[in-house]
Design goal:
CATH architecture: Up-down Bundle
CATH topology: Growth Hormone, Chain: A
Largest sheet: none
Shape: globular
CATH superfamily: MFS general substrate transporter like domains
Number of strands: 0
Length: 422
């Protein structure tokens, strides 16, 4: 099979394997950390979390970073990306240890959220840097395959990390602090793995002498404006990002709904609800894996826009057909399908951005991309909080998401037709 052949070729590339190892360890730590946060905030017996409380937690963790994320991209285009992976993961390991101590100390919620916010903020540097560095270790002909394997493998690593967190939490007598400590260890291992990459290999390219940190901060606003102008000049990247933002909004709304269903409608206690949530996340992760295998073939047949049209159109039809039952089995099937749809669209979008954005601007654009992801997810949580009843069953949310998926599919079809792309 061509996919298997290209995959073997990619894995023969030493620096690609090393970059992939950094991603896998980093994102597995993310999965561990996220499960610990969900367990502590939503599934603790002493907490009665509502959709509004969940939306508030997401806003606290993600929205403040959205204000500084684009500025981080300007720095990312000036700092050696290898060093971002090294120091970023070391910093996250230390911050995760602080979070574990805060859990043990039963501190006020705002202090716990502040610690978690710091870990999330550093995470944006690392993830944007991993995407921006990928074209430096893979040739252009195999970039679609690399975008299928690398981010999807990272997502699967996060899913596996979440599963490992469930096991550790069970063995550690449901200790969220023990789970967070495991995440800190994985962040440390990711930092050590980054040392195997040459310092200058991952870029970014610089014209003239490198800017000092103070000078880079001084030109942040101008750099951001330049990145936005560059993105606006490339309609392909801007359109793909707009479509992916809408698809991410849909995924976020359904995630909050499934979380509420697991917490209140499908289980009688917190432990069973958390187990059901873990199962849903695992099944969605399996959909991400299928998307990684399927997307290179589908893009070859349909084109990048064509594959995104197929993904959004499929979700528009199957999401209400399965979701309106509000039963566990159909909803888990929907989780798998939406995993394929969301990750398949993301792989196509990543490739559009990487091939249509100059390397000097790529870090800024991927930081903007990351911010759009956060804002879409938080916006979806806020919208769901207004419509979801206490048990999570909402026909309005399911129908609204289906309409949005259909609108994305139609818009992409019109964009492709007017641009004359195959």
């Amino acid at each position: 099979m061509p996919v298997a052949r290209d995959l073997r070729i990619l894995l023969r590339l030493r620096n690609f394997r090393r970059l992939l190892a950094v991603r896998l360890l980093s994102q597995s730590a993310d999965g561990v950390y996220q499960v610990a946060l969900a367990a502590h905030v939503v599934f603790s017996p002493e907490k009665q979390a509502s959709a509004a409380a969940i939306a508030s937690a997401m806003a606290v963790l993600l929205l403040p970073y959205s204000l500084v994320g684009p500025f981080a991209g300007v720095l990312l285009d000036r700092w050696p990306r290898r060093q971002v992976f090294l120091y970023g993961n070391l910093l996250r390991a230390g911050l995760a240890c602080c979070t574990a101590l805060l859990i043990l100390g039963s501190v006020p919620d705002w202090l716990f959220y502040a610690s978690a916010l710091c870990v999330t903020a550093v995470n944006r540097f690392v993830l944007a840097g991993l995407s921006a560095a990928l074209p430096r270790v893979v040739d252009a002909d195999r970039l679609v395959m690399a975008n299928s394997l690398s981010p999807t493998a990272g997502t699967l690593a996060a899913t596996a990390g979440g599963g490992l967190a469930f096991v550790v939490r069970l063995l550690a007598d449901e200790s969220d602090a023990a789970v967070v400590t495991l995440g800190a260890l994985l962040y440390l291992l990711s930092a050590l793995a980054s040392l195997s990459l040459p310092r200058k290999l991952l870029g970014p390219d610089r014209d003239g002498d490198p800017l000092r940190l103070r000078a880079a901060l001084a030109v942040t606003a101008r750099g951001l404006a330049a990145g936005l102008r560059h993105l606006a000049e490339g309609k392909d990247a801007a359109r793909a990002l707009a479509a992916m933002t809408a698809i991410r909004f849909c995924y976020g709304a359904l995630t909050v709904m499934v979380l509420m269903l697991c917490r209140y409608a499908w289980s009688d206690n917190e432990s069973d609800g958390l187990a059901l949530l873990g199962l849903a996340v695992g099944i969605s992760g399996a959909g991400f894996f299928v998307a990684a295998v399927l997307t290179p073939w589908a893009v070859g047949r349909l084109g990048r826009y064509g594959w995104m049209i197929a993904c959004a159109g499929t979700a528009a039809v199957l999401e209400p057909a399965l979701g309106l039952t509000f039963a566990p089995v159909p909803m888990l099937v929907a989780a798998f399908i939406l995993g394929v749809v969301t990750q398949g669209s993301k792989i196509a979008t990543d490739t559009v951005v990487q091939t249509s954005v100059d390397d000097a601007f790529r870090g800024r654009v991927f930081s903007l991309y990351d911010v759009l992801f956060n804002v879409a997810f938080v916006g979806a949580a806020a919208a769901s909080a207004l419509m979801l009843p206490p048990d999570g069953r909402s026909v309005t949310v399911v129908a609204g998401v289906a309409v949005l998926y259909a609108a994305v599919s139609v818009a992409l079809f019109r964009w492709r037709r007017t641009s004359g792309r195959p």
